């Protein structure tokens, strides 16, 4: 039987199944970096460096059975972020089974760096059309570059006959030593919407963002690059983004973490979410229009 990956299956791209029978794609580059992408949610669930160290957080209590979302890696929030609309929390894309896209339209040369990549596709089901009546194609390329960076290139096209608007976030759970040892740079002086204060607008006062309690913010008009520094591990994550003007920063802290059923009570200490996002001003596509967003993560 031929592989669903066709000629693409190789040392760089391998297809297996998880314990629920969902296809899982493993990407590996020549330097030994790897990433795992599940068709459940089109979600990156693992990214390891050349020493085999996991760079993304996965909750010990994470669901893995569709259609429940998986608290791990990089869930894609689409076509709605949070509760900013009539859909379920963070929209439906993270709960759906995506398909492998065998014949994607050509991408820019800079999005074709190496052989370790997979193209995925999400189209709305009849059930999706009942709750969000818009025809779209969401194409996602997940690419592991030769130097170990992780790239996610999203293309959302309106294939219907009326305009629609959407918001999107790559809800990235970075793995950190201890949240109290982490600082985020690149958000200084920015305005943010604070979800803990009814989405009220504030201005960031600090030189860097550090963590002593729950944080749930949307930074507006954030720069193309943000740094997440983990002092104890002496590791820095760099987030580079295009087409994603906002940055979401989230950590539930102790009290809220205890109320999250698919997260261990103390696991809030081991992660910080910093998302490339387009939330404050939703993206509007007229019929035939396409939006492209790029996220690149690197770890030093």
Describe the structure.
The N and C termini lie far apart (41 Å). Helix content is 4%, strand content 41%. The mean pLDDT is 93. The protein is mostly beta strands.
Structural class from helices and strands?
A: mainly beta
Placed side by side, the strands forming the largest sheet appear as 6-7-8-9-21-18-17-12-15
Count of extended strands: 21
The Rg value, from CA coordinates, equals: 18 Å
Order of helices and strands: EEEEEEEHEEEEEEEEEEEEHEE
Q: Treating each run of at least 4 consecutive H or I residues as one helix, how many helices?
A: 2
Give the helix proportion (percent range): under 10%
Extract low-pLDDT stretches: none
Reported for the largest beta sheet, the result is: 9 strands, antiparallel
Strand portion? 35-45%
Mean pLDDT: 93
Bulk shape: globular
Cα distance, first to last residue?
41 Å
Give a short overview:
The protein is mostly beta strands.
List keywords for this structure.
300 residues; single chain; 8-stranded antiparallel β-sheet; 4% helix; mainly beta
Spell out the blueprint of helices and strands.
Elements: E1 13-17, E2 23-28, E3 34-38, E4 43-48, E5 76-77, E6 99-100, E7 117-122, H1 126-131, E8 136-144, E9 150-158, E10 164-170, E11 173-175, E12 182-185, E13 191-194, E14 200-203, E15 209-210, E16 215-219, E17 225-230, E18 235-242, E19 246-251, H2 253-259, E20 271-285, E21 290-299
């Amino acid at each position: 039987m031929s592989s669903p990956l066709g000629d693409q299956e190789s040392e760089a791209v391998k297809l297996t199944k998880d314990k629920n029978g969902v296809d899982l794609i493993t990407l590996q580059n020549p330097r030994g970096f790897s990433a795992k992408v599940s068709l459940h949610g089109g979600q990156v669930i693992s990214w390891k460096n050349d020493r085999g160290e996991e760079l993304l957080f996965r909750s010990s209590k994470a669901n893995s059975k569709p259609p429940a979302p998986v608290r791990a890696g990089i869930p894609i929030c689409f076509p709605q972020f949070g509760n900013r609309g009539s859909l379920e929390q963070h929209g439906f894309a993270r709960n759906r089974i995506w398909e492998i896209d065998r014949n994607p339209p050509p991408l820019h040369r800079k999005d074709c760096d190496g052989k370790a990549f997979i193209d995925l596709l999400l189209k709305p089901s009849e059930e999706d059309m009942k709750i969000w009546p818009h025809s779209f194609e969401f194409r996602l390329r997940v690419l592991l570059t030769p130097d170990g960076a992780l790239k996610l290139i999203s293309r959302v096209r309106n294939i219907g006959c009326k305009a629609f608007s959407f918001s999107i976030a790559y809800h990235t759970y970075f793995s950190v030593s201890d949240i109290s040892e982490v600082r985020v740079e690149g958000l200084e002086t920015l305005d943010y919407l604070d979800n803990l204060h009814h989405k009220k607008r504030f201005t960031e006062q600090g030189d860097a963002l550090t963590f002593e309690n729950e944080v749930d913010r949307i930074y507006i008009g954030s720069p193309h690059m943000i740094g997440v520094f983990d002092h104890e591990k002496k590791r820095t994550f760099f987030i580079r983004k295009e087409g994603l003007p906002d940055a979401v920063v989230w950590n539930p802290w102790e009290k809220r973490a205890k109320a999250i059923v698919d997260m261990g009570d103390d696991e809030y200490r081991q992660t910080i979410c910093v998302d490339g996002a387009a939330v404050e001003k939703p993206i509007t596509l007229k019929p035939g229009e396409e939006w492209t967003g790029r996220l690149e993560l690197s770890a030093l």
